[in-house]
Amino acid sequence: MKTKNFRPDWTEQAPPAGSFRSIAKYGHPDRFKHPSDAWVRMMKDEFHLTDADFSKKFDEGHAQVALNRAPALKPEQIEALEAVVGRENVSRDDYSRVKYSSAKTAEEILELRRGIIREVADVVVHPRDKQDVRKIVEYCDAQRVPVTVFSGGSSCNFGCRPCRGGVSLVMSTHMNKVLEVNELNQTARVQPGLFGPAYEDALNRAPELFHCRQRYTCGHFPQSFEYSTVGGWVLTLGSGQASTYYGDAYDIVFSQEFVTPAGSFKTLDYPATATGPKVNDIMKGSEGVFGVLVEVTMKIFRYQPENRRFFSFMYPTWESAVDASREIMQSEFGRPAIYRISDPEETERGLALYGMPGFVDSFLAFRGFKPMRRCLCLGNVEGDRDYARLVARKIRRIARKHGAMSLTGYAGRKWEHTRYTEPYMREDLNDFGILIDTLEAGVTWDNLHRLHQNVRAFVKSRPGTICMTHASHFYPQGTNLYFIFIARMGLDEYVAFQKGIIDKIVEYGGSLSHHHGVGRLLAPWMGSHLGREQMAVLRALKRHFDPHNVMNPGGQLGLDEIPARRAGSKE
User: pTM surpassing 0.90?
Assistant: First the structure.
């Protein structure tokens, strides 16, 4: 008799209100995406696990948050903040202080699940508008009270951790609206706390909401799209999954309005200007160290989903996939929107996880696409109908020239359907002591294979470690490599292992970050990465905008003293 596949007892209930798990959990409290049976089989095979290993959960984080640390701010300082925004918009309870001081690094999640609390804000403030922000920043600067900006809370580099207490300034509670769509200029002026889905929905419905003739799209769709904000995209230099066509967040910012301790200003609305170095560019990626972004004008694009053309290919080798991708990006016929190539290990694991039938595997092998050599490519083309047809046709031609076989658009559509839900699985894996994390690096074409081979070699040097790699943001001059590693390891070993991977990325010529920003995680490497002179320029800007170092102090971007990792206590 055929037995049913063993399936772990995945958690199906929302975390208890007020619990550590409710802070650590990704996404909506009632949404889950459990690992498939194929995932479970892969974990068992790779880590030599049995059904028994999936019978007991670890450090689930169901305990209630209890901080037991009184706010360091004086009562009169808290009262002054309440006078600005109203008492209902100031919180100092334990749960709020921990929630709005935490984000989504693997280290933070694992610690929260164990009830470990590191640095927290003294008080949480929810400004209602940019006038509130200006008054708060002025007061905190005068009182030397640190201000850490919190928006979506999806940071994966300790970007929301308030090293020296003070105020956690939550932008997404009230400052979350589309203020204007300028159809003539094809721009949208928005508040920084606006979450991705609300922004995209407003642009898609521009005729109904803003009396526009066209429907629009933001063009920016990171994996964290549902739980990240426009301001977060800009201030961490994020990249959406369709960045190859629409550009990174850096490319689609038109102008910005900032409140800083030195004063408030709005950069100018011009498509181009030759008036010296652009302050608009300086403020992008500033991660809250210069001031608070209170409004941003973004470029927007015509929404034409009916013209999307999906494609997917199997390449015989990683080298052929890279060569074809470079030719596609350096040709002058246009670019795809979404474009991804997976290396051999990611390809094989992906095929297994999505349940590729045995006859398909045999057919691919017969055609010369051998396991642990072949590489999957998938993506789509967007824009005008004739443009989409042309680019899709040119991509197919180049792919065939480099030995690829078309798999139709099925793989691309299937991937797009689940592209925002993958992070939910981390919770289930963590329940059974399995850790999954990512690091990414920008790289030029002439250094891609060196970086890929050596970082992979380091990750795989640890027995029982999965390393899946893909490239997913492309330029004529290069791409990024996104390393996903999965292992069973303790928290201390993980911190050391992660540091080793970053060391290898730097050693072999990758950028410290491609689209996750710097935060405090990568700050220790910033000096060697940028060099003394460039760091001196950033520090000079910091001294100008924030002379008393109240804006997100504690090593953000490596601009001041970086606290030791994991310096805290279990409450």
Answer: yes
